[in-house]
Each structure stands twice: as structure tokens, then as C-alpha cells.
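INTERNAL AUDIT FORM
Audit reference: QA-55
Scope: verify that the stored structure record matches its stored sequence.
Auditor: D.O.
Record contents follow.
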Amino acid sequence: MRRFINMLNILTISLITLILISNKIILLNEEILILLCFIMFFLLAYNYTKRSIYINLNNRKIIIKDSLLLAFNTLITKLKDQLILEKKSKKIKKNLNILQIYIYSIVSQIYKNLSKIILQNNYDLYTKKLIIHIILNNKW
């Protein structure tokens, strides 16, 4: 039906053009003939290629839409992963700060008691040596 209407429009335009030419309202020279050929070529090309152009553009639209959705989903996934890593790094930093406090307190306690510990170890060692020496000397 639509094709019939298009052909009817072309026929009407052609008849009007022929009437205008026969009454010498439109003079046919080279420029007018080239213009008419160009207009007819444009109309025919449009009528015969509009469906394939529509299908081609629609396919491109679908491809672009799918690639944008894929890129958007990838971006969301990476942002979620980054957020999880940031939360984990905050926890690790907090735990490291707590560990630093504990290590500092242990090292300070060791430093305070180091001389006592060394003296106690030396005292125990020399006491054992003295006892062994006394035992060995008494036996002989």
C-alpha cells in the first residue's frame, strides 16, 4: 500500500512537471535537467535503501547498547571490588596499629626488666656452677 502511494506521488509530480514544461512555465536547460536527475536519484535511492539503512542502524544501536552495558557492569564490578579492598585495608591498618601498641608495650616491659632478667639468669648460672664446683671439690 505504501509503495503504491509513493508511486502515485511520483506519477503526480511527473505529470505536473510535464504540464509546466509543455506550457513553457519551466524552461528545460542543462542545469534543470541535472537537478531533476539528482532529485529523482535521491528519491529512488531513499525509497530503495531506507529499510536496509534502518536495519543497519538498528543493529549498530544494539551493538553499542550492549557494549555500553558491558562496560558499565564491568565498571560497577571493579568499583565494588575496590570498595571491598579499601574496607579490608582499613581493617588491616587498624589491626596493625593495635599490634604496634602491643609490641611497643612488650618491648618497653622487656627493656625495663632486661637488666633484672640478665642478672637473674647470671645468678642462676653462677649458682649452679658454684654448686657443681663445691660438689666436685668435696668429692675429691
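Auditor finding: record pair retrieved intact. DSSP finds two helices and no strands in the chain.
Action required: none
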